[in-house]
Amino acid sequence: MRAPRNRRVFVIGYGAATPLGETFAQTWERAVRGEAGFRKVTRCQVESLCNVVGEIPDWDPRIFPF
Q1: Which is deepest, 30, 62, 64, 66, by most CB within 10 Å?
Q2: Nearest to 65 by CA among 38, 26, 34
């Protein structure tokens, strides 16, 4: 399968949802300050070998502003 040669794509924005913040600006500011985004799981109980994750605080994909 091949894409048409005359097909154009326009990028009209970008966003970021990370453990350091809900926006790119928040994430960048906290990363520059040296904050870590990985911490112990808080949203659910885990019983596996890994209990440190990059959890996004207060994440609700139904209302996240993308």
Answers
A1: 30
A2: 26
> pTM score > 0.70 for this model?
no
From residue 31, how far is each of 4, 19, 38, 53 by CA, in Å?
40, 10, 12, 16
- Write the pLDDT tens digit of every residue in 16-61: 778 998 788 889 999 999 998 888 877 777 777 777 888 887 777 7
Q: Dig out the tokens for 35 from the structure.
A: 């904050």
Task: Find all residues with CB under 8 Å of 54, minimum gap 6, and list them.
Answer: 18, 19, 37, 38
Residues in the chain: 66
- 38, 52 contact by CB (below 8 A): yes
